[in-house]
Amino acid sequence: MRDIFLRACRGEEVDYTPVWIMRQAGRYLPEYRAVRSNIDFLTLCKNPKLAAEVTMQPVDILGVDAAILFSDILIPIEAMGMRLEFSDKEGPILGEPIRSKSAVEKLIVPDVEEDLPFIFDTIKILRKELEHKVPLIGFSGAPFTLATYMIEGGTSKNFLNTKKMMFQLGTVFHYLMEKLTDMIISYLSAQIKAGAQAVQIFDTWAGILTPQDYKQFAFPYIRKAISELKKEGVPIIYFVNNCAGILQEIKKSGADVIGIDWRIDLSDAIKKLGKKIVVQGNLDPCALFLTKEKIEDRVKDILWKGDAAKGHIFNLGHGVLPQTPVENVIALIEAVHTYGSRK
Ligand code: CP3
Known about the structure:
This protein has 343 residues and is α/β, with parallel strands linked by helices.
């Protein structure tokens, strides 16, 4: 197995900077759209054979240095007892938003192996298929990001319901976060036991909090989850979208690797995080709509900046957009491999 990604996560010396892409299995790939034309998204996530097939697509088509399990951060929320739907127009919709103590009480902390068997079956298939290829990343949403979906009932503009619960029903909010943290610990531990060789925790919405509120309402839970998961012995990546204002806190999360979005210069992020942390990121996903020459320039700039950290894994600053031309994604991976040589 080409283990350069895992070596970089651990801050070990590597021959070149490894690269993978958030949302690398998805709609920008014609091969993904072909599979999706016959099956809806949730059914695809729950079909281990097909989920493994689409996980492998970017490994074979792009030549990335890691695979990421094909699933969604909202899948375990369904197992907690909420209705989940994906609408092509509105994105995810969760039934009966959580707004009260009794609603939180009703949520189940699932027996993940029993309730989400398809996740672990997919991981087992993938480990066999990836044996001579690249490592497999498992993932979960962070407690705060999952809480926003449950409280808002989907995506939101200003997260008013979430903040109202934080500010007006603080004990209920903390109770929800505790349940989510327990779920995430057991879910990621089980993914690791099934064969995930690293895990990424996605905190897509933590950046909407003031630094003080992040510290009080989100950070204690992510830190607890990470400190429990450390016992499993695989690298933990913590990605926070819109991280600039809270990097000082994120630094204390205990994660081995910090994922950085594109809104902050990578040099500034590294300065704030210090030299003991490995960073991942942070090309603007829209930069993939530039010419190939300009993509290369941005790649070189980020690689150069990443050199200052303990280690650097190249990635986008958020997920690849469905409209992205595949040839530009391939050019990006080639550019990272060409200019990221450390020999
Ligand atoms: O990275 C990968 O290739 C693995 C698969 C993966 C998906 N979602 C597949 C997906 C991963 C890691 C995720 C994480 C995820 N899901 C996040 C965190 C990362 C981020 O983007 O911030 C979030 C917030 C979600 C929730 C979610 N899932 C939304 C808001 C949407 C709708 C918007 C969209 O991108 O379509 C989804 C749907 C989704 N998840 C798709 C895929 C491939 C598109 C579904 C389809 O095929 O129609």
